[in-house]
């Protein structure tokens, strides 16, 4: 008997409501077939079947509220090899294992642990092909999750005899990726019926007579197709075994809208122009990281009452202090003295006076944090990531600079772990490095505040009745107005301004 439990629902989400059951007790289910749909405060979560078998009983009924890892149902596993669409893969795996001459053992390559709250990944790139020799710990492939890329090393030396999960496929934690035949005299035996490798762009849609003809799309995709008036044969499935996803439906709708309607005579004259434009376009599937960034930013706008307040800071004193001590600082601590440590210290100082900016909303409660885990937004070739510097309020200037330097390098190299990007209480985003003069940053949920830094620009300022040229920077604080009032937001920004215009206040704790 296999238990079906509530999956991880996301950071700060602890419970959900059972919205719909798509199966009833006694129904046969296939692996990954959708069993039910859960609703949280922010998103809808589909629960797939972990095994093939028969749904023996439903524990949590529709309308019930359930916590993370709560029991939803039980499935009696079938004694057969599984659903029809999985048999070729299993049989091929056995054939591949049996073809290894010389008595070599078969070693499965499985998806490694992906991190807290991450249950699936997409196979991004295979560095080896069937028949290649591999050595232990040599990189076989790269997986892409919502936030990070994960390299999968070879667990043993030998020959790659089978690739189970092709590029573009979505795999769950601990799923089998490939098979390695280890031992002397091992020879590869690729599958006889192997066709040209499918990618996320060539996976046949369900219902076309191909491998996915008996695959049932997820309820969310079916609902999206019904609402958009799109037929299944218009959607190219990129999910597991050719299943259609909501993103696939959106892509099909966008493609249909972009294409000229052949049935409308009025659009005929525009066809050559559209064809020329289409020839110059390039369609690239969004990475999981980019999809997650887009979803979280939109969720923040839909959920929080975001308001932005602005101020400006005279950077004269900070620049003078940095110029005076930067060589000595680097010689002693082995790291350059930048502006980020000043801003981090100033924010930690201001958060002590205005703690609601460092708090978060959890249901009907406000959770105040007596520490500062500072998120430092960093742009990378893969997209925006926010590594977290933990307990930044108790760190020195040198410790902060070292942490920022190390996290930034790991972010650019795509080596950040999930744990390094979770748990932040406040975020600093420096758009000034790209030349931004003014912007309104978007919150990083569930945080309630984010400070936007901008370009330092010489401007004429009135100082003691005289016009002087000063290096000025605009500051922007975006905050959640549900928890932070205007007075608190303005006070926070003023304290940051005061600390930067007179850094001695940081030493005096003023």
UniProtKB/TrEMBL annotation:
Residues 216-253 form the Peripheral subunit-binding (PSBD) domain. It comes from Sagittula stellata (strain ATCC 700073 / DSM 11524 / E-37). Coiled coil: none annotated. Residues 1-76, 106-181 form the Lipoyl-binding domain. It holds the Pfam family 2-oxoacid_dh. GO terms for molecular function: dihydrolipoyllysine-residue succinyltransferase activity. This is Dihydrolipoyllysine-residue succinyltransferase component of 2-oxoglutarate dehydrogenase complex. Its cofactor is (R)-lipoate. CDD domains: lipoyl_domain (cd06849). It comes from the Bacteria. GO terms for biological process: L-lysine catabolic process to acetyl-CoA via saccharopine; tricarboxylic acid cycle. Belongs to the 2-oxoacid dehydrogenase family. Residues 258-275 have a biased composition (Low complexity). InterPro entries: 2-oxoacid_dehydrogenase, 2-oxoacid_DH_actylTfrase, Biotin_lipoyl, CAT-like_dom_sf, E3-bd_dom_sf, PSBD, Single_hybrid_motif, SucB. Keywords: Acyltransferase, Lipoyl, Transferase, Tricarboxylic acid cycle. It catalyses: N(6)-[(R)-dihydrolipoyl]-L-lysyl-[protein] + succinyl-CoA = N(6)-[(R)-S(8)-succinyldihydrolipoyl]-L-lysyl-[protein] + CoA. PANTHER family: DIHYDROLIPOYLLYSINE-RESIDUE SUCCINYLTRANSFERASE COMPONENT OF 2-OXOGLUTARATE DEHYDROGENASE COMPLEX, MITOCHONDRIAL, DIHYDROLIPOYLLYSINE-RESIDUE SUCCINYLTRANSFERASE COMPONENT OF 2-OXOGLUTARATE DEHYDROGENASE COMPLEX, MITOCHONDRIAL-RELATED. The keyword Transferase applies. E2 component of the 2-oxoglutarate dehydrogenase (OGDH) complex which catalyzes the second step in the conversion of 2-oxoglutarate to succinyl-CoA and CO(2).
């Amino acid at each position: 008997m296999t238990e079906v439990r509530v999956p991880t629902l996301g950071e700060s989400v602890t419970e959900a409501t059972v919205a719909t059951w798509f199966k009833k007790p006694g129904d046969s289910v296939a692996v990954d077939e959708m069993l039910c749909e859960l609703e949280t405060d922010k998103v809808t979560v589909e629960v797939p079947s972990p095994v093939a078998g028969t749904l023996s009983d439903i524990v949590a009924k529709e309308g019930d509220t359930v916590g993370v890892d709560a029991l939803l149902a039980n499935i009696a596993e079938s004694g057969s090899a599984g659903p029809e669409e999985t048999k070729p893969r299993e049989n091929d795996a056995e054939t591949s294992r049996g073809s290894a001459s010389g008595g070599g053992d078969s070693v499965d390559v499985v998806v490694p642990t992906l991190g807290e709250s991450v249950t699936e990944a997409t196979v991004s790139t295979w560095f080896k092909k069937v028949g290649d020799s591999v050595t232990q710990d040599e990189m076989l492939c790269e997986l892409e999750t919502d936030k990070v890329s994960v390299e999968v090393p070879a667990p043993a030396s030998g020959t790659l005899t089978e690739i189970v999960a092709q590029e573009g496929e979505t795999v769950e934690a601990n799923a089998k990726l490939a098979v390695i035949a280890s031992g002397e005299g091992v020879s590869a035996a690729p599958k006889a019926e192997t066709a040209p490798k499918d990618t996320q762009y060539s996976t046949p849609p369900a219902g076309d007579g191909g491998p996915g003809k008996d695959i049932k799309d997820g309820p969310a995709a079916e609902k999206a197709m019904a609402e958009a008036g799109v037929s299944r044969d218009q959607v190219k499935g990129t999910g597991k075994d050719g299943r259609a996803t909501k993103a696939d439906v959106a892509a099909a709708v966008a493609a249909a809208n972009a294409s000229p309607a052949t049935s409308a005579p009025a659009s005929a004259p525009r066809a050559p122009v559209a064809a020329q434009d289409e020839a110059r376009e390039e369609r690239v599937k969004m990475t999981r990281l980019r999809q997650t960034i887009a979803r979280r930013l939109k969720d923040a706008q839909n959920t929080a009452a975001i308001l932005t307040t602005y101020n400006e800071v005279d950077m004269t004193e900070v620049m003078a202090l940095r110029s005076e001590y930067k060589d000595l600082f680097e010689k002693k601590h082995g790291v350059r003295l930048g502006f980020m440590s000043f801003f981090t210290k100033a924010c930690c100082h201001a958060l002590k006076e205005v703690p609601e900016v460092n708090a978060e909303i959890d249901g009907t409660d406000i959770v105040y944090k007596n520490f500062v885990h500072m998120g430092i937004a960093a742009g990378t070739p893969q997209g925006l990531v926010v590594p977290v510097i933990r307990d930044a309020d108790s760190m020195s200037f040198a410790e902060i600079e070292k942490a920022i330097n190390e996290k930034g390098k790991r972010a650019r190299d795509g080596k950040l772990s999930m744990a390094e990007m979770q748990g932040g209480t406040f975020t600093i985003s420096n758009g000034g490095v790209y030349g931004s003069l003014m912007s309104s940053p978007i919150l990083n949920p569930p945080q309630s505040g984010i400070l936007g830094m901008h370009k330092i620009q010489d401007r004429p300022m009135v100082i003691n009745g005289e016009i002087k040229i000063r290096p000025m920077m605009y500051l922007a604080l975006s905050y959640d107005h549900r928890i932070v009032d205007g007075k608190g937001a303005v006070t926070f920004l003023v304290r940051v301004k005061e600390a930067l215009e007179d850094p001695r206040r940081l030493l005096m704790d003023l």
